[in-house]
Amino acid sequence: MNLNVISNPQAAYAQIAHWRQAGQTVGLVPTMGALHAGHISLVEQARQACDRVVTTIFVNPTQFGPNEDFSKYPRTLEGDLELLRGAKADMVFTPANDDMYPPGSSTYVLPPKVSLPLEGEFRPGHFQGVATIVLKLFHLLPASVAYFGQKDYQQCQVIKQMVDELNVPMRIEICPTVRESDGLAMSSRNRYLSAPQRQSALCLWKALQIAQSLYAAGRHSIGEIEQQMRETLLSQGAQRVDYARIVDRETLLAPSEDTDAVVALIAVHVGTTRLIDNLLLEPLGAQYSVLHTP
Ligand code: PAF
Questions:
Q1: Of 1, 134, 201, 239, which has fewest CB within 10 angstroms of its CB?
Q2: Ligand 1, from 58, 93, 134: best to mutate by most atoms within 8 Å of Cβ?
């Protein structure tokens, strides 16, 4: 089966409706392109679980702030299509900007409360843009299940809550972060890093591992562990730390007596590149991550 590249929204909708009416399950993998092994692992998980696999490639302007990297965000369509063919995706939707945002558009999704801390503080408006484009894609591409990477942990929580609260008939699957063999989480923005910055970027994974071992040891307060993460990040190569927090996995607020489980989340600047990562902290020290060996 060839990869069907569709830019027209009506044609994309018709193809998915046709598959669904024939009783086939459709897995959706929304992306902004510049695909890497993390995206491909989402396609592979969709391939295993669903009859049809659809991806989207659209660099969504509304989720970038005025001083962010929208214009220089990597656009690598030919390479992306090769990777999608290799992963046996059935269709990729590559809409034009005016199809997703007709001129004069002024309707946006107000994202749930979980969007407010962390990324919400440092990238105001970001999750409004994410929630809006994801809901639009879910309407245009009525798949059975959509796949997102845990690397964007807060994004996953925002999308899951939005889908629940707006009664969107889509199941959300969160898939483990794919890492390079030295622990760096795969990200389209890694290609901005020079060789020395690539080395410095390991500070995120080091800080998360320190958080995991201190948390598992059970002798340190959350504040002490956060301080250790911050010190590790700054001493091992980050120029600036936006946040290094341990929070409730559901609310993304400081843990309370109702908290069942926590997650450590980090955002730092390495050179001019902003990187994020996270780890679900386990009391017994188990770590959930996929190491990718190139
Ligand atoms: O995670 C991403 O690549 C984007 O935020 C998404 C979900 C495709 C929306 O533009």
A1: 1
A2: 134
Residue 223 Cα to ligand 1 midpoint, Å, equals: 31
pLDDT of res. 285: 45
- Report, as ranges of residue numbers, the positions in the chain whose pLDDT lies below 50: 285-294
- Give the pLDDT of residue 10: 98
Note the pLDDT tens digit of each residue in 105-120: 999 999 999 999 999 9
pLDDT at res. 18: 98
Angle between helices 153-165 and 126-140 (to 10 degrees): 60
Give me the catalytic one of 18, 36, 39, 126: 39
| Token pair 């590249």 in the structure block, residue | 5
Top CATH class of 4-175 equals alpha beta
Q: Is 39 a catalytic residue?
A: yes
Residues with CB under 6 A from ligand 1: 30-32, 60, 63, 130, 133-134, 152, 155
Distance 30 CA to ligand 1 centre (A): 6
- The CATH class, in words, for 188-292 is alpha beta
